[in-house]
């Protein structure tokens, strides 16, 4: 395979999934949601071939022009494009992909802030998948997306199921857009700032952090915590999706 103008597999961060059972499982998850599919990082097409069997409109994108050309010849029924996931429109109802590990965070940020997609199944680094699913406590990115998306951890994918073998395991992450968001889309920017202020704020106890983050009085912060069902001595990572939305409503109206 000739070297891409973007670099070799090392520069592109490509670790191709070879485990047939995991490939089939990802395709099964995508099959649960109807409509056209956009595959990110199609590579040599192991997952693309499985998705093509769903007999739905399928666009597969990759930055490696040589693999794009070869896959387009092999799968004439699939629209294979040379494109970058950081710039290509995320407008298909279903998004699926084996995400280059070094691009996981920027792709996830873009996915959770743009596009009209409804359902995403992503293969990422294991620790990233755990964090985004809130296993062991929520992160700032997870909390910022929570009013609009639900995230679940599907399975772990051992490193030996990739070629070349990465230094860490992978994880299958499933994200769905909430049919009824917990907050209106018009409040997303102030909500994002609120969550960031809480995660990065100081004050010792959560009520003091909240008061500073929202510019509210201590009594109002304590009342918001009580109404949201959040312990005063808790930590931001322990706050659930519905609780984040309730805290924002209680402190920002």
Tell me about this structure.
This is 23S ribosomal RNA methyltransferase Erm. The protein is of the alpha/beta class and 253 residues long. It folds into 2 domains: 9-177, 3-Layer(aba) Sandwich (Rossmann fold); 185-252, Helicase, Ruva Protein, domain 3. The protein is built from 11 helices and 9 strands. The protein has helices spanning 9-12, 20-31, 46-52, 65-74, 104-111, 126-132, 140-145, 188-200, 206-214, 218-228, 241-252; strands spanning 16-17, 37-40, 58-62, 79-82, 94-98, 119-125, 149-157, 162-163, 170-177. The strands form 2 sheets. Strands 4-3-2-5-6-9-7 form a 7-stranded mixed beta sheet. It has a two-stranded antiparallel ribbon with strand order 1-8. The radius of gyration is 20 Å and the shape is elongated. The model is unreliable at 7-12 (pLDDT under 50).
* Distance between the ends: 58 Å
Instruction: Label the overall shape.
Output: elongated
Give the neighbour order of strands across the main sheet: 4-3-2-5-6-9-7
The main sheet comes to: 7 strands, mixed
Nearest-angstrom radius of gyration? 20 Å
- What is the helix/strand order? HEHEHEHEEHEHHEEEHHHH
Strand content: 15-25%
Helical percent range?
Answer: 25-40%
How many β-strand stretches? 9
> How many distinct domains?
2
Low-pLDDT windows of residues? 7-12
CATH-defined fold name of the largest domain: Rossmann fold
Mean pLDDT, as a whole number? Answer: 92
Structural class: alpha/beta
Q: Can you identify the CATH class of the largest domain?
A: Alpha Beta
Quick one: CATH superfamily of the largest domain? Vaccinia Virus protein VP39
Number of H- or I-type helical stretches = 11
Q: What is the architecture of the largest domain at the second tier of CATH? A: 3-Layer(aba) Sandwich
């Amino acid at each position: 395979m000739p070297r891409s103008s973007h670099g070799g597999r090392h520069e592109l961060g490509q670790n191709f999934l070879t485990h047939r059972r995991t490939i089939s499982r990802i395709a099964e998850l995508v099959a649960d949601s109807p409509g056209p599919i956009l595959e990110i990082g199609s590579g040599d097409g192991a997952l693309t071939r499985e998705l093509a069997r769903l007999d739905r409109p399928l666009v597969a994108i990759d930055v490696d022009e040589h693999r794009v050309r070869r896959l387009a010849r092999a799968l004439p029924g699939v629209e294979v494009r040379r494109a970058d996931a950081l710039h290509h429109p995320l407008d298909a109802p279903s998004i699926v992909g084996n995400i280059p590990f070094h691009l996981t965070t920027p792709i996830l940020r873009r996915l959770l802030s743009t596009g009209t997609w409804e359902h995403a199944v992503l293969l990422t680094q294991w620790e990233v998948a755990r964090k985004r699913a809130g296993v062991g406590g929520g992160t700032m990115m997870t909390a910022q997306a929570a009013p609009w998306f639900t995230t679940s951890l599907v399975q772990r994918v051992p490193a030996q199921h990739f070629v070349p073998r990465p230094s860490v395991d992978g994880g299958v992450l499933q994200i769905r857009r909430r049919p009824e968001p917990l907050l209106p889309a018009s409040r997303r920017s102030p909500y994002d700032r609120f969550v960031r202020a809480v995660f990065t704020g100081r004050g010792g106890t959560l009520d003091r952090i909240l008061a500073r983050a929202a510019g509210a009085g201590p009594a109002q912060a304590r009342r918001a915590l009580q109404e949201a069902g959040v312990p005063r001595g808790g930590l931001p990572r322990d706050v659930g999706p519905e609780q984040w939305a309730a805290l924002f409503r209680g402190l920002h109206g």
